[in-house]
Amino acid sequence: MAEQLQPTRKSSQPSADPPRSASLPRDDVDRDVGNDETSPDPAVTGDFETGNTVELLDNSSIGDSAVDLPDDDSRFSDLGKDSYASSFLSSILSEAEDYYWDNGRRYHAHGGGRYLLPNDETELDREDMKHHEMMLLTSGRLHFSPLPPDPQKILDLGTGTGIWAMEIADQYPSAEVIGTDISPVQPKWVPPNLSFEVDDLELDWLYRPDSFDLVNIRFMFLAIRDFGAVLRQAYRAAKPGGWVELTELALRPEALGAEAVGRSPDVVFRWLELLKTGAEKRGYDYHVQKRFRSLLAEAGFEEIREEVLEVPWGPWHREKRLRAVGFWHMQQLTEGLQGITMHTLSKGLGWAPQEVELFLVDLRKDLSNLSFQLLDHCHVVYGRKRLR
Ligand SMILES: C[S@@+](CC[C@H](N)C(=O)[O-])C[C@H]1O[C@@H](n2cnc3c(N)ncnc32)[C@H](O)[C@@H]1O
User: Fold this and answer.
1) Where is the composition biased (Basic and acidic residues) (predicted)?
2) Confidence grade of residue 99 (pLDDT, cut at 50, 70, 90)
3) Residue 158 Cα to ligand 1 middle (Å)
4) Rounded distance, CA 210 to CA 202, Å?
5) Between the chain's N and C termini, which has fewer beta carbons within 10 Å?
6) Residue to substitute in 137, 220, 244 for testing ligand 1 pocket (most ligand atoms within 8 angstroms of CB)
7) 170-175 contact pairs (CB < 8 A, 24+)
């Protein structure tokens, strides 16, 4: 059996009814969305379908020892039983909390610090905001793949805060859900049909072939260098008739309001271009979502489908739901700006940290100008494993 994580993050039991308010793991008290700095117009942001406040959770234990659950905790005893014991899983577990700090941010050292984004509290907050944004964007759908009403096994690769895995476990009590990540930052109290494992998805998987109804891969473009290899493994692990679902932002926003503003948001476009170049230098395809359909087909999947969803950057859209999506998108983007940018530009392109910080000052100005009406797209691509 694969080693089970003994996660440290606290969470309330998630609701089974998406969309739900964002579970933002912060110590502060309820936040008034309408009063947030990111919103230029409280009247616009105050009427979100989500309500004015978000549920805030205590996660003060983050960073504590990752081994504080009793070994014999029966809730965890045999979940993940279809993943086989292996020496490399153990060796990854031994480096599970191999963190390092750089410019005030915490990163995982696995693979020589290959993953460029931090794994600290600020980043985890951002991940949960992104999930909330996705729930608004998809009107509460955790997946588009047409699953049976009682799926048996679901795998979430690079589970992050584990929020998607927790909600899918609640939605499908019939399913054994496994969330894997290199960082053991997931909550401690989770639905009984969910387990978290420390694992590197770029290594050989040890899951039983033909076993998963759904393999979920969301927001992983900066974590996976060879999507083809991962999808081949996902094909093997999926049940005949099982699905693999990939979700990624295009990161190519159009500036619909540029003409009215009298200029284009050049700093935003330059930033995206720099991130792309930096990521490519580290071996990642910044626009990999363009290849998802062909990669799924090459791996053997059929019935490949794609949903393309509009994502406004900031609360400028006339449609209420998309205004809320835009609000949360800008929230997570501005909160994550330094974390998203620092290592890609410093380690990828050799910028000094001070240069990055100065660049971010200009970037924030363009990003906060809602008149640019930046509109991006989210791609959800899914395919089915052949039925024998
Ligand atoms: C942007 S987060 C996505 C979180 C989650 N999928 C979601 O949608 O909420 C990427 C996650 O991938 C994890 N990761 C990076 N490299 C990985 C690897 N080689 N194997 C497994 N997880 C990895 C990171 O630790 C991080 O939690």
Assistant:
1) 25-34
2) confident
3) 3
4) 19
5) C
6) 220
7) 170/13, 170/14, 170/15, 170/16, 171/16, 171/18, 171/142, 172/147, 174/150, 175/150, 175/151, 175/213
How close is the Cα of 57 to the center of ligand 1, in Å?
Answer: 22
Mean pLDDT computed over every residue of the chain: 80
Binning pLDDT at 50, 70 and 90, where does residue 17 land?
very low
Q: What CA–CA distance (Å, rounded) separates 303 from 367?
A: 38
**Ligand 1: residues whose CB is within 6 Å?**
108, 115, 119, 127, 131, 158-160, 164, 180-183, 200-202, 218-220, 223
Tell me how many degrees the CA angle 71-150-386 measures, rounded to the nearest 5: 105
Write phi, then psi, for 210 (nearest 5 degrees). 60, 40
For ligand 1, the distance from its centroid to the CA atom of residue 68, given in whole angstroms, is 23
Q: Return the residue whose CA atom lies nearest to atom 12 of ligand 1.
A: 158
As beta bridge partners, residue 306 has 381
Cα 15 to Cα 7: distance, rounded to the nearest angstrom: 20
Residue 73 clears pLDDT 50, i.e. is over it:
no
Nearest to 200 by CA among 235, 229, 236, 169: 229
Per-residue pLDDT averaged across 313-328, rounded? 97
Ligand 1 nearest-atom number relative to CA 134: 8
Nearest Cα neighbor of 237 from 119, 153, 113 is 153
Query: Ligand 1 mean position to 196 CA, how many Å?
Result: 13
Q: Which residues of 174-212 are buried (b: 16+ CB within 10 A; e: fewer)?
A: ebbbbbbbbbbbbbbebbebbbbbbbbbbeebebeeebb
Centre of ligand 1 to C-alpha 224, Å, is 9
155 alpha carbon to ligand 1 midpoint, in Å? 13
Instruction: Please give the Cα distance from 131 to 126 (Å, whole number).
Output: 9
Tokens, residue 80: 């993940």
The DSSP letter of residue 345 is: I
CATH number of 23-384: 3.40.50.150
Q: Which atom of ligand 1 is nearest to the CA of 128?
A: 9
